[in-house]
Structures are given as structure tokens and as C-alpha cells.
Write a structure and sequence with these properties.
The protein is α/β, with parallel strands linked by helices and 351 residues long. It is built from 14 helices and 11 strands. The two termini are 40 Å apart.
Length: 351
């Protein structure tokens, strides 16, 4: 990558508070400003910008994170980094674009665990194998999924939600953002392993699902915390429980599923940065260093917290280990049907 950037430094350039605040404002300004041509920011002979692929639509949680990182990473490495949305099939389209790209450091993928871990386990022929076709570069941020109800729902907490559920004569629909997603498997596990009368109803993305939840056309839904936070703060929905090993700092009053006596959902999701297979080690190291520097900025950390995420820098080896643990945990939950509650935390022997 270094030969394509405009006068790259041997080390990532330090980011001052003034520069980082300016970058944050630009990152949140929207796609139009971030997609200005290269000559608008530098010499007319500046090379093509780095492509940061995102497998989900503009305006979602992954896209917001990508645009925040694009500006800061570009500043750190003195390159232009442009977000390129290629939504489709839970990130499959963007993953295939990364697989087809040359390993020159000019194309990267920002993805969370669904595309990297869940999709290859649940789609018969995804067309890519993350462990063979991609180079993990660095881990970025963690987040959890959560179950929320509409503000018109009578339940104010999980105990009241359970009481309401058990008073219903049939299974209750719970919205999930996509088929084969972690939210769908969470709902299935709550029904299958814990006897709750729930039925997952997939939507085509979080936005239409949350619109239905806000207007009370569905009673409850499961989505990523950073997609629920603003609606919860605005008192348009109510978050009742979260995944993860501990409560979330942004919602300290909301218990985890484990606290509620529903073990097995302690593995939180996370975002990582990926490159095509065989990316040169020196280029991986350059990106690792830049990611670590950007995540150390107080302004970046605060923005992630405001979105309901947490800074979780991981180098390449740490990211690979985290992926392995996440795959193992969710493989048990996805494929071990008919397990009792006692088996949910221990996993099942045939997984």
C-alpha cells in the first residue's frame, strides 16, 4: 500500500486533537463530503484512494463506523480512504469483492461477525472462505445485540415481558434484521432451549424492522445495540436485555441474558478490518499501527461509546483468536437443537 499513498510516512502521522475533531465532523457529514475527488484534497496527480468496502447500506451502524474510521485512517497514513457500500446478502457481496481484489493494500473490508463467522456457517455456498481468502488486519470495536419492545408495550422490564409472553395463547413474533443472523438465532434459542413462546420474523434490514417496532406494528425485536440506542434514548422503544458477559456502560440498568437465567449468550460481536489473502506483512503492520493510533483518540472512543460500541483494538493474531472463539460459541447455539437450559452454557457434545 505504501507505494500508492501520497508521500506516506515511515510511521503513521500523529493526530492532534484539532485534526481529529475536524476529521470527526467530516466523518459524520455524510457520503457526499467523503466522496470528493482526490484532487480536492491534494495534488492533481494523487493516486486512486483506498477502497473501504462495507457490506451494508449507507446510514447503518457499520456505515457510520466506516466513515468515522475512513477519515482518521486516511489522515494517519496520508492517503484518501473512501467508503464503498456494496450491500447485499448479509455482506456477501462486499466479501466477494474483497476476495476478487488484488492484495496491494488498496482494498479493505470493514465487517462484523455476521459476514465473517455466521454467514459461512449458514449459507450453503457463500463463495468465500474468510480463513482462506482474507487476511485479518485488526480488530476495532465490540458491540452486543439486545432485545427491545415498543414503547407502547406493557412490559417495563424482563420479568413483566415474561409474564406477558406466558399469558399469550400463541407464539409471539419477534423482528430480526435478516434471515440467518445472530438475532434470528438468539430468538430461536430462547424458544428452543428456554421454552419461551417466540417466533423470529426476518426483515430486510434493521431500518424497516425498527420502523415497525417504533409504530407498534411488531411488539419486540432484536438488533445491535448501536442500532437501538438513539431510539431508546428518545423513549421510542425500550431495551429489556442484552447479550454479552456484562452489562453495557451506556445502559447500566439493563441486565444481560445470563443474569436473567438464560445462559449461552455471553459471546459479544465485534468489528474487524480485513484485506485480500497474501497481503504483505509490512502492509498489514502499517494498517495495524494506524488502527491502533486512531482507536487511541479520546474523540473516537467517545463517539463509539455514544453509539453503544466499545473500543476493542486487536492485532492480527488477537483478531484471529477472537474469531475462533466466536465461531465455536455460535456454532453450538446454531446447530445444537433441543438442548435444555443446563446444556446451553456448556455447549453440546456433537458440535
Amino acid at each position: 500500500m505504501s507505494h500508492r499513498c501520497h508521500h506516506p510516512p515511515a510511521k503513521a502521522a500523529p493526530l492532534t486533537r484539532r485534526r481529529s475533531l475536524a476529521a470527526l465532523g467530516l466523518a459524520l457529514a455524510g457520503p457526499a463530503m467523503l466522496r470528493q475527488p482526490a484532487w480536492a484534497h491534494g495534488p492533481i496527480d494523487q493516486p486512486a484512494p483506498v477502497r473501504l468496502l462495507v457490506g451494508f447500506p449507507s446510514g447503518g451502524g457499520t456505515d457510520l463506523l466506516a466513515r468515522l474510521l475512513a477519515v482518521h485512517l486516511g489522515m494517519a497514513l496520508q492517503c484518501q480512504v473512501l467508503v464503498e457500500n456494496q450491500p447485499g446478502s448479509g455482506g456477501q457481496r462486499a466479501a466477494l469483492a474483497l476476495k476478487a481484489a488484488p492484495a496491494d493494500g488498496q482494498t479493505l473490508l470493514l465487517s462484523h461477525t455476521h459476514t465473517i463467522n455466521i454467514l459461512p456457517m449458514t449459507m450453503p455456498e457463500p463463495g468465500f472462505d474468510p480463513q482462506q481468502d482474507f487476511t485479518p488486519v485488526a480488530g476495532l470495536a465490540g458491540f452486543v445485540e439486545a432485545l427491545a419492545v415498543s414503547v407502547s408495550h406493557p412490559a417495563r422490564n424482563w420479568a413483566e415481558y415474561l409474564e406477558w409472553l406466558r399469558a399469550q395463547p400463541q407464539q409471539l413474533a419477534v423482528g430480526v434484521p435478516a434471515t440467518g443472523s445472530i438475532p434470528e438465532f438468539l430468538v430461536q434459542c430462547l424458544q428452543r432451549n428456554h421454552g419461551l413462546p417466540l417466533q423470529a420474523v426476518p426483515f430486510r434490514g434493521s431500518a424497516p424492522m425498527l420502523a415497525e417496532l417504533v409504530h407498534g406494528r411488531i411488539q419486540s425485536a432484536v438488533a445491535a445495540m448501536h442500532e437501538l440506542m438513539e431510539l431508546h434514548r428518545a423513549q421510542r422503544i425500550r431495551v429489556l436485555a442484552v447479550l454479552g458477559a456484562q452489562r453495557q456502560a451506556v445502559l447500566p440498568e439493563v441486565p444481560t441474558f445470563a443474569e436473567l437465567g438464560l445462559p449461552g449468550f455471553e459471546q459479544a460481536s465485534f468489528y474487524g478490518l480485513y484485506a485480500p489473502h497474501d497481503l504483505p506483512t509490512a502492509t498489514v503492520a502499517q494498517w495495524e499501527q494506524a488502527v491502533q493510533q486512531v482507536l487511541a483518540l479520546p474523540e473516537v472512543a467517545q463517539q463509539l461509546r455514544d453509539w453503544g460500541m466499545s473500543v476493542q483494538y486487536m492485532n492480527r493474531s488477537q483478531l484471529q483468536a477472537r474469531e475462533a472463539g466466536h465461531r465455536k460459541a455460535w456454532k453450538r447455539l446454531i446447530f445444537c437443537e433441543g438442548q435444555k437450559e443446563a446444556d446451553s452454557s456448556a455447549g453440546c457434545s456433537r458440535c
